[in-house]
């Protein structure tokens, strides 16, 4: 089997592959996948804050990382708007590309990740009221954008002749536009205690379960296509290999969302229903966790294969961070639901892995920018 049938499009290559040209910074190459940097950074802060094992200074470090993610979000949003204003032709081009358009899902997930971090870590900095307000705005905005990508990207793939049509293109990136509602469900679970009790809180809880269903069912169908593509089409192009980790992100995020919602249901719905939702979260988490372990090991093996065939650093490496982060939050939530010391210990081990991966990718990104290989024209 070979992977020559899969074409990585021209537009996002300026961000997916190392850029050889050196020049001054430009917004010409600010495509949606750059928001994966915000996702990958923000998840480190929120994962650290929720760990079952807290060491002195960890929350302070988590707060600094959240502030870094928030600052990065502001900078990239400004660059993204500039990109659309000054380089509209480039912007329209990636929306017309079958692969590049998938990464529009990174923007809502970046907003949601920073929003959750604001709620979890921002109160000492901003005050509780402002932290909740900022998170609410980011959650609503991110949720609406995520619902839009979940519907409009598949609609465009069905009805428009996007570049890459007719090729074997069932790639892990196809999950990007449909995962945001799952991230919204997690953020909504965190917001539940801050919403007035009664109908409004119940509506939010039910809406979050609906978001889980939307993302999970479409995501599992997409995973089936991706699995089939890998088995029949062989490995991904070497520089696109890190994107296989995106599959793990949906798994970890679903475990996080369902268990946080199960914990938040107490007092919102009748006791029997809340107990059932709690049990559902535990059973779902254990089953999906087994599947996640398989995907994790497979992703490690495929990444190792790519490393042996010439994988070099690019912004695609940010695909490692957020998915591993969701495994940390998923294990943390499941450990709290079950009381399992083993699962809680797994969350800590996974966080150590996440911290190492994030430090590696962040360092590579900074070096690439300073050396003129990234975001340059």
UniProtKB/TrEMBL annotation:
Pfam families: SLAC1. The chain crosses the membrane at residues 34-53, 65-85, 106-130, 136-158, 170-192, 204-227, 248-269, 275-303, 315-337, 343-366. Keywords: Cell membrane, Membrane, Transmembrane, Transmembrane helix, Transport. The keyword Hydrolase does not apply. InterPro entries: SLAC1/Mae1/Ssu1/TehA, Sulfite_efflux_TDT, Voltage-dep_anion_channel_sf. It comes from the Bacteria. GO terms for biological process: transmembrane transport. It is found in: Cell membrane. GO terms for cellular component: plasma membrane. Belongs to the tellurite-resistance/dicarboxylate transporter (TDT) family. This is TDT family transporter.
């Amino acid at each position: 089997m070979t992977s020559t049938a899969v074409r990585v499009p021209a537009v996002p290559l300026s961000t997916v592959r190392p850029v050889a040209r050196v020049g001054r910074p430009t917004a010409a190459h600010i495509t949606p996948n750059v928001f994966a940097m915000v996702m990958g950074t923000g998840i480190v802060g929120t994962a650290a804050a929720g760990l079952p094992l807290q060491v002195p200074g960890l929350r302070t470090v988590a707060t600094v990382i959240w502030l870094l993610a928030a600052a990065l979000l502001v900078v990239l949003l400004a660059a993204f708007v500039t990109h659309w204003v000054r380089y509209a032709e480039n912007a329209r081009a990636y929306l017309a590309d079958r692969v590049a358009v998938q990464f529009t899902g990174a923007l809502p997930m970046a907003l949601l990740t920073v929003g959750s971090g604001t709620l979890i870590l921002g109160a000492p900095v901003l005050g509780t009221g402002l932290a909740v307000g900022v998170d609410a705005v980011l959650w609503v905005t991110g949720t609406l954008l995520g619902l839009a990508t979940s519907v409009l990207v598949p609609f465009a793939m069905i009805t428009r002749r996007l570049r890459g049509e007719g090729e074997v293109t069932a790639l892990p990136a196809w999950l990007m536009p449909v995962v945001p509602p799952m991230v919204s469900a997690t953020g909504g679970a965190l917001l539940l205690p801050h919403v007035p009790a009664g109908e409004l809180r119940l509506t939010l809880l039910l809406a979050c379960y609906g978001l889980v269903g939307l993302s999970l069912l479409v995501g599992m169908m997409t995973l089936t296509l991706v699995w089939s593509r890998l088995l029949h089409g062989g490995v991904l192009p070497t520089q696109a290999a890190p994107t296989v980790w995106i599959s793990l992100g949906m798994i970890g995020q679903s475990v996080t969302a369902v268990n946080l919602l199960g914990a938040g249901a107490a007092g919102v719905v009748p006791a029997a229903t809340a107990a059932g939702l709690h049990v559902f979260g535990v059973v779902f988490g254990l089953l999906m966790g087994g599947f996640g372990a398989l995907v994790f090991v497979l992703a490690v093996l495929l990444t190792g294969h790519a490393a042996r065939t010439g994988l070099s650093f690019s912004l695609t490496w940010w695909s490692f961070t957020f998915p591993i982060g969701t495994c940390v939050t998923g294990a943390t939530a499941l450990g709290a639901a079950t009381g399992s010391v083993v699962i809680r210990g797994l969350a800590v081990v996974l966080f150590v892995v996440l911290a190492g991966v994030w430090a590696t990718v962040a360092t590579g990104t900074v070096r690439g920018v300073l050396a003129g290989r990234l975001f340059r024209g």
